[in-house]
Amino acid sequence: MLSARGVTKRFPGVVALKGVDLKVARGEVVSLIGENGAGKSTLMKILAGVQKPDEGEITMDGRRLDVSSVAAAQAEGVSLIHQELNLAENLSVAANLFLGREPNRFGFMDQKTIRLEARKYLTKVGLEIDPETPLSQLSLGKQQLVEIAKALSTRAKVIIMDEPTSSLSHGEVETLFEVVRDLKEQGVSVIYVSHRLAEVMTVSDRVVVFRDGEKVGELGVGEATHEAMVRLMVGRDVSQLYQRTEHELGEPALSVKGLRTEANPDHEINLQVRAGEVVGIAGLVGAGRSEMLEAIFGMTPPLAGKVQGVLPKSPREAMSLGLAFVPEDRKKKGLILDLTVEENTSLASLKMDARGPFLNREKEKRLCREMTKALAIKTPGPWQKARFLSGGNQQKIVLAKWLALSPTVLLLDEPTRGVDIGSKEEIYQLMEKFASEGMAVLFVSSELDEIMGMADRVLVMREGRLTGELGRSDFSEEAIMNLATQS
Ligand SMILES: Nc1ncnc2c1ncn2[C@@H]1O[C@H](COP(=O)(O)OP(=O)(O)OP(=O)(O)O)[C@@H](O)[C@H]1O
Ligand SMILES: [Mg+2]
């Protein structure tokens, strides 16, 4: 049904797509995978009218499609759920759902119809919320579900999902899969872009693999094994994703006592992480894990409690105590999109430089080179603005910025969200390396694999409190899930 032929897209310093083809049949679910910066989002944006190709054409049922703008593409039946959410925070959920529609179709809708319509699509994605809720009050995961509801409401023929599950909970992912199955039954096609290979295996009829702007392979249902996908993506085997070595633990390097957060004022959090120790925090989305890290780092100052003996009042103070924090929501809290890669990587460490306001250009350059190399950050050069990097590469910059500080305590919130498997391996290796040099690492992850693969010890949270602790020898998915869900 939908076909892209010979699509080429150039940006200053990069050729994002080099004459690629992609075909999607009616009711087919095609997954698109590839390393960070492979060109996946760029092709999806072209299909949805967000960006214009330099060469190539898009057709539907043999007819040339007008994808010269988002509205045009939507009118042709192509709808995109963005990788980086594209909603208006200050508007209500309902307003977001119907934002940007042609007024002749929706302009006459009264408030009541809007609410009813909104409810209908929200229910489809499993969101039982008042459509009048301001979007800003929803968690990242729920906002993502609103984006999905929005795409459903356009009655598209092709729905493109660019990493739709990166901040969804396990249950929400299941709901999404049901939505995909429903769409398929109705003859709607889905293009599914994801780094989560297990999900790709579950949902897709066919898997297409991109590398460096080119299609390097295609796998049918039976062929799309984890190994086959990784080999095509990375060009080598990644069999040892988690390479842990046992190292000696030192004194407690992070001490949190009697911490009470604004989100969960009734529970006290107490924990310690020793030098050289990697501690994972598991729990369902909404269990209060991010809130806890943000409180420890003084980003949302806690109501009470002590971190390293003092009440953390600001990130600056936490930094002076040797803490560093890689937040989950990189776009809002981690990056300055209009600064260059070089400026972003050196931001945190330069603030720490006690010698005054003079920027040390040489040091900044060196740092940037080291970090882009260590994390394999794909950028045409240090001069590129962070805004123009692919999603996964933005995540790596946030990581680079904090690692450049060589902190004594590293707090990480979903460190590999949206990161391709090759780079995951690199990030794990860095975590391991830093721990072996005596850093204390405390990380939140929704991927149990990652927690069990990397942590010396797991703390489990539920409803704002720590509900349990497991040492490596007691790790099992079941044990962790029990602590995360029991009441
Ligand atoms: N607006 C832009 N200006 C300049 N370069 C861009 C722009 N958009 C994308 N690029 C570059 O094009 C390449 C492909 O990026 P794209 O976002 O398509 O990758 P991706 O496969 O979606 O990666 P990820 O898995 O990290 O999301 C990257 O090198 C990126 O930096
Ligand atoms: Mg992308």
Describe the protein's architecture and organization:
The chain is α/β, with parallel strands linked by helices and 487 residues long. Helix content is 36%, strand content 23%. The protein has 2 domains: 2-234, Rossmann fold (3-Layer(aba) Sandwich); 252-485, P-loop containing nucleotide triphosphate hydrolases (Rossmann fold, 3-Layer(aba) Sandwich). The protein has helices spanning 40-47, 70-75, 93-98, 103-106, 111-124, 140-153, 170-185, 197-203, 226-234, 289-296, 315-320, 330-334, 341-352, 361-374, 391-403, 421-436, 448-454, 477-485, and strands at residues 2-11, 14-24, 29-34, 55-60, 63-64, 78-81, 158-162, 189-193, 206-211, 214-220, 252-260, 269-274, 278-283, 304-307, 323-326, 409-413, 440-444, 457-462, 465-471. The chain has a 6-stranded mixed β-sheet, sandwiched between helices. Strands 15-16-17-13-18-19 form a 6-stranded mixed β-sheet, sandwiched between helices. Strands 2-1-4-5 form a 4-stranded antiparallel β-sheet, with helices on one face.
What binds here, in terms of ligands, is: adenosine-5'-triphosphate, magnesium ion
Gyration radius over CA: 23 Å
The counted number of beta strands is 19
Q: Strand pairing plus helix content: what structural class?
A: alpha/beta
Number of helices: 18
Beta content: 15-25%
* Strand order within the widest beta sheet: 6-7-8-3-9-10
The name of the CATH topology of the largest domain is Rossmann fold
